[in-house]
Design brief:
mainly alpha
Length: 202
């Protein structure tokens, strides 16, 4: 809860500045200003989404616009994945006592139960929602979600998002309803299949 409030505060302070970055071509042109480092700049922006109100889906679309679906998706996935892992790592830096104080006893117990019982679907689906992914990544670290489960769920959420928005940027398609449905449906399906595979291997 506390981390979410911090992120919301940052949005209130910086949101107006980033709000102009809602056009894929504008973002694409801004990234092109970095020349051969445009892809790296896009990845850095996605990582900064951890603490700044970066329009992640627009950046992913801009990467698709610049590099095509495949390379754009790869760059988008790398940026989103690194951001999630850094958030998780930040959470792991704190002790359980700090986590209990930060989250509150009730939320700590509920969260611990959720992440210990396959709550990876929350991480996977959250990648499609603004602000929430970063807060949940840190929370997963605070609550000591198993690293393997976190990596799997983060991948299930970040990869389809990167592919979807890179494709939108590369092809110029803009179908909000379809995008919204796929943003939640694909990660959910991937996480379900991954979970099923894990259970069969145990």
């Amino acid at each position: 809860m506390g981390f979410s409030l911090c992120i919301l505060l940052i949005w209130m302070i910086w949101g107006g500045h980033w709000a102009q970055w809602t056009d894929v071509r504008v973002v694409g042109e801004a990234l092109q200003g970095y020349g051969v480092s445009a892809g790296l700049a896009g990845v850095v922006l996605l990582v900064l989404d951890l603490v700044l109100p970066v329009p992640g889906t627009v950046v992913m679309s801009a990467l698709g616009f610049l590099y095509g679906t495949l390379l754009g998706a790869l760059l988008g996935f790398v940026g989103s994945f690194i951001a999630g892992m850094i958030g998780y790592g930040i959470g792991r830096l704190f002790t359980e006592k700090t986590a209990r104080w930060f989250l509150g006893e009730k939320d700590f117990v509920r969260g611990k139960a959720l992440f210990s019982q396959g709550g990876g679907w929350v991480i996977a689906l959250s990648r499609a929602v603004p602000i929430l992914p970063e807060a949940l990544a840190v929370t997963a670290g605070l609550l000591r979600m198993p690293l393997a489960a976190f990596v799997l769920s983060l991948t299930c959420g970040s990869l389809p998002m990167a592919v979807l928005f890179a494709w939108i940027g590369a092809t110029g398609h803009d179908r909000p309803l379809l995008t919204l449905v796929l943003s939640f449906a694909v990660p959910a399906v991937l996480w379900s299949l991954a979970s099923l595979g894990q259970r069969r291997n145990h």
